Amino acid sequence: MSPTRADLDKQPHEVARMFDGVARRYDVTNTVLSGGMDHLWRHAVVKAVDAAPGDRVLDIAAGTGTSSEPYADRGVQVVPADFSLGMLTEGYRRRPDLPFTAADAMRLPFADDSFDVVTMSFGLRNVADVEAALREFLRVVRPGGRLVVCEFSRPVVPVFSTVYNNYLMRALPRVARRVSSNPESYVYLAESIRAWPDQRALAQQVRAAGWEQVRWRNLSAGVVALHHAVAPVD
């Protein structure tokens, strides 16, 4: 079956198949569509995670492992996990030294208290049940462990917000047709970003799942936001 795009009901098999279809050119396409900002955002995530050698990090929705490589290169124990087998296959082809793991964010194949940090970049938006995923992240992290979520959000400058939304719905799909193996998947990308809650609403969802000390920091004027939280110690 040819690659397609998922719908906003986010059926897991449809989302996985969509990402399978774009795996080979996924990283290049993201760099083009973000104007190179994806590198800055990923650097901000690594800095926020602040993992040291000996720490164990779960990088969920890691795709081809681009987001996991900085941790591995620093001697951090990182597990890149994703539910797209196409992404995992492409990642293993590039970095066979990384322990790529097939995983559904809503039903993680890891024991309780397995990690010091759980991080997810640009993937929470694709999960069918966000609260279920956030609870799973809490289950697999140790008491006092941390969560770092990087996700598209709402620009905080009104004029820029209008320009950004016009880019999402008009320019992004056209650019994707030139660089992506499945441009229709980027129509879903634009739709899912517009439907995603803003920074404060996502923070409320994180708290509702049981995390504490929830806060966020805007990147690129709120185009992207980093949400931080800590697992209860008690």
Number of contiguous helices = 9
Coarse shape: globular
Largest sheet: 7 strands, mixed
Distance between the termini: 49 Å
- Compressed to H and E, one letter per element, the order equals HHHEHEHEEHEHHHEE
Average of pLDDT: 84
Strands, total number:
7
- Helicity level, as a percent range? 40-55%
Structural class: alpha/beta
Return residue spans where pLDDT drops below 50 for at least 5 consecutive residues: 1-9
Radius of gyration computed on alpha carbons: 17 Å
Structural commentary:
Helix 2 packs antiparallel against helix 7 and helix 7 runs antiparallel to helix 8. The chain is α/β, with parallel strands linked by helices and 234 residues long. The N terminus is likely disordered. Helices cover 44% and strands 20% of the residues. The termini are far apart. A seven-stranded mixed beta sheet has the order 3-2-1-4-5-7-6, sandwiched between helices. The chain contains nine helices and seven strands.
Task: Give a short overview.
The protein is built from 9 helices and 7 strands.
What descriptors fit this protein?
44% helix, single chain, disordered N terminus, 234 residues
Question: What topology does this entry show?
Answer:
Elements: H1 12-22, H2 26-33, H3 37-49, E1 56-60, H4 69-73, E2 77-82, H5 85-94, E3 101-102, E4 115-121, H6 130-140, E5 141-152, H7 158-179, H8 184-195, H9 199-208, E6 212-219, E7 224-230
Helix pairs in contact: 2-7, 7-8
